[in-house]
Amino acid sequence: MGPRTRVVSFDSSAAMLRALAAHLHGRSLPALGALPGRAEPAAAALGRLINALPAAAREAVYTWSGSREATPPERLAEVRSEEVARWTAGLYPRRDYPAAAIGSSNGAMVHLCAALGIPWLPQTFLVTARRSGISPDEPAEDLEWGRRISPPLLRANPDLALHQMLDPNQDRLMARRMTYLRLKRLRLGETFERFLGATLRRNATIFLVECALRWPTTRLGERHVFQFGGLGGATVREFFGGGPRVEEYLGRYGSRRRWHPPPPDGESPEAEWGFEPALAGDVERFCRERGYRLRRITFEQPEDLSALVADLYRFWYARRGMPEAESLQVGSFILLQPHLAIRRREVPFWMAFNTEPSAEALERYLDAAGPFDNIGLTLFSHGVESVGVVPIGRWRSILGRARRRGAFVGVDAARYPRDFAVFARHHLSLRRSAPPHPLPQPLTPQELEQFLERAGESYPVRWS
């Protein structure tokens, strides 16, 4: 990424984009794309050394590693949305695609695109601004600091909306040294239009991925809102009103009993996962002009798509005459490997995080789908025992639902949720654990429609 891009690699959209692009090139993604494959064993060994450190030292390493990617605030004006678009489009192989997806970041959607063999263009990307001297538990100070530094960034990018975000629950370690600036496209832009026009077949389909999740926000400008908290283990009520879980969590850090965020004055699309509707009109216009078919995929919660895509994989494998898929591979946040899931004939189930709502989504799916012979589970580690994080014992209980073998993949259970070796080890573990099969022929858009017709209204996802 060049100096006018400045997208951080640990963000959901960047990591998912790289994983999908790697699959379309016919390969998996070592170390989240941050390192070449040959460096992955050394990275895993370094991770094991970091895991041996005391908890406070591991937290410090996590904070430092993330802050290396933060942009000095005086250089935010160098960010250009078209440069980000050129980097995005440049990751994909140039070929004729039957379809493309545009919109919300979503791990299940990445698996859907991998099955179809098509690219995805994310609406949202993350730039972080380097700062110090502001506690993660002081949202009013973070808001004012963001208000001061953001005007040059917004002036340089009139096609973007800024969702400044502070989540002291799950992003506590990163928020010590940086502010999260999530940027959402309001229109496709020249680069994305040119990429789609050059790679989509005549009469191709564009899938508009729209997560309708919203969050209370405080408006700071026409295209700038501040969001306190985010999707995860803590509820909106806990972020804004406190409660026993918040008091216990903050007490461990010697902080206040509850947070005192600026009062929200409305709701906006959730910063990381929500879809900004302004882009939909521009995509509709583009489809009309080019003769593409527009298919809108709308859902409320990010994990609403996960069960549908998991069952779609079982349908796809059966269509290709493969033995019934009896292995479930569960990914977490940015820890997903679509290429290896397909090569290993596994059913992928994506969880947004490692928190209670994610565990409940996985349990609901297992209740509905019935037992799998094998369950592999990779857990994202964010470095703190935050409100709503699921203890390792509950994850073990879920693995115990496998008929033959349930196992963590690349996870150091004794160090979770401060297991920093998992970022390199999850790929190594998947790649080494079984010989891969040849890639099947991609699922066709017509087969997808057949699956959806059979499914009816079985899933909380709207297709229109």
Radius of gyration: 21 Å
Instruction: List unreliable stretches of 5+ residues.
Output: none
N- to C-terminal distance: 36 Å
Q: What is the residue-averaged pLDDT? A: 92
Measured by DSSP, the beta-strand proportion falls in 15-25%
Indicate the overall shape. Answer: globular
Description:
The chain is α/β, with parallel strands linked by helices and 464 residues long. Helix content is 39%, strand content 19%. The protein has 17 helices and 15 strands. The chain has a six-stranded mixed β-sheet with strand order 3-5-4-8-7-9, with helices on both faces. Helix 1 (12-24) runs parallel beside helix 5 (107-116), helix 4 runs parallel beside helix 8 and helix 5 packs parallel to helix 12 (306-319). The model has no long low-confidence stretch (mean pLDDT 92).
List keywords for this structure.
five-stranded mixed beta sheet, six-stranded mixed beta sheet, globular
Please summarize what this structure is.
The chain is of the alpha/beta class.
Topology diagram in text:
Elements: H1 12-24, H2 40-51, H3 55-67, H4 81-90, E1 97-103, H5 107-116, E2 120-122, E3 124-130, H6 139-149, H7 151-156, E4 160-166, E5 178-185, H8 189-199, E6 200-211, E7 214-221, E8 224-228, H9 236-241, H10 244-252, E9 266-269, H11 278-290, E10 293-299, H12 306-319, E11 327-332, H13 338-343, E12 347-351, H14 356-369, E13 374-377, H15 392-399, E14 405-408, H16 422-433, H17 445-455, E15 461-463
Parallel strand pairs: 1-2, 1-6, 4-8, 6-10, 11-12, 11-13, 13-14
Antiparallel strand pairs: 3-5, 4-5, 7-8, 7-9, 10-15
Helix pairs in contact: 1-5, 2-16, 4-8, 5-12
